[in-house]
Hints:
This protein has two domains: 3-162, 23S rRNA-intervening sequence (de novo design (two linked rop proteins), Up-down Bundle); 166-203. The protein is 68% helix and 0% strand. It has helices at residues 3-26, 43-59, 68-90, 94-118, 128-152, 165-186, 198-203. Helix 2 packs antiparallel against helix 3, helix 3 (68-90) packs antiparallel against helix 4 and helix 4 (94-118) packs antiparallel against helix 5. It starts with a helix and ends in a 6-residue tail after the last helix. Residues 1-12, 14-33 and 156-163 have low confidence and may be disordered.
Amino acid sequence: MADGQGWLQWQRGLCFHIQKTNNKQQNTKGNPMAKYQHFEELPVWQEAARLYNAVLDLLEKPNAPLSPGFRNQLDHAALSVSNSVAEGFERSTTNELLSFIAIARGSAGEVRSMMAVVKDRLRLKRHLTALQAIRSLAESCARQLTGWAGAVDKLPFEGRRHLPHKERQSREAGEKARDFRLNFLRNLKPGHPLYTSPEARAARGEAPE
């Protein structure tokens, strides 16, 4: 699949999610399912798989003048993209998902850097097409991962991983207010009228009187 086609499919997937969620809001009896039930269905995972196989093709070329250390690092970095996408997809919280998206994006950047480092070596001139193809696939993965990370907290998904945007904002505001009050109570001076209150004692971790 070409880079543009993969990106278009990913965007269509996002539209599908939004449409399904809107349908659920209009009809509470429905039970819409997410488009992607398995990480293998994700366009970005498929692109990452193509990236790793392109790397393998390069590493398996006879007499490719690449050092053992370079080969090992490139193999690990390329495989990390698809593996991190898969692990993030299988995690149950948004923070975990975003963390693995970031790891995958970093690994894609590492692959691009390695291609840029060796692209001007004369001994690799005959492999320039392969180097360019790998770099292009890594860039495609990075773009899709960037778009995914930006969309995770904005799409109106429901379930363990996602909360509606307004509900999430309300919850975060409530948590900040609660943390502020706990910190205030925890740091009261002994002469303060609330110092011996049950709430202040609990904030300090003291047993009730």
